[in-house]
Amino acid sequence: NNTLTMNFADSGAVMSLSAGNDSVLSVSFNENVMEYNQASGVGGVVSVNVGTNTTHTLIFDTNRIYHNRAASNGGVMALSMYSLSNRTITMINNDVWNNTAIDYGGVMESFIGVEAIQYVTLTYNTFRGNTAEIGGAVIYLIAPNGTFEVNMTGNTIRDSWSRTQSAMVAQSITTADFVANVWSNNTSPSLSANVWIKLQDGTQMNIRNETSQNNHGPAAWYVTGTGTGQVTVENATFSDVNTTYMLQMDSLSVVE
Q: CA angle, 28 as apex, 22 and 31 as ends, to 5°?
């Protein structure tokens, strides 16, 4: 029940976290107000860097997260992993409004530079009016060598804006479940899609009971992959009248 407001730092304006080798790090933010915090680099609220063989968990539960800003990546959180570790990010029942990253990840930017794994679970959050100038107005996940497992259930993602890739960009996905989320009035005016997903070889991706409506840009959803993979779409509603493609798939072996 804290109010964390108008803090300024180079990175992680509220909290900058680091962990040494062979350690365990667990941090929870519960029922706080986080607003108008600003980083001149990454992580408008929190930034995380960890050592080798580290297990770390970051939880946001029932917070109000408004008007935070990063001059680079991660308007709320910026997460970097350059060594063998496991990371779990969980967001439950948060209101996340009007956060900004000048580059990537208006809410979350995560980078994995080694053969490691990150678990991302987002449940019953409201993401509204978040922006990133380059990509990922809400979420930007990139892993040149590592992988992500993503589960999104019951979230509302609306009124996001990014110049090239709007609400979500996620690469190197090995497992993905999108269930009963609502994507509405998100805008990507330039080159790509409002939800842009790249799957690893052998990935199972499920899109169930999703609603995608009134999004703007070349495609509402774009899913691509390498090797074999399977995408299952069930009971989804796509009504994106201002896109060329509602659900565009490329380089996937199995689509149901």
A: 175
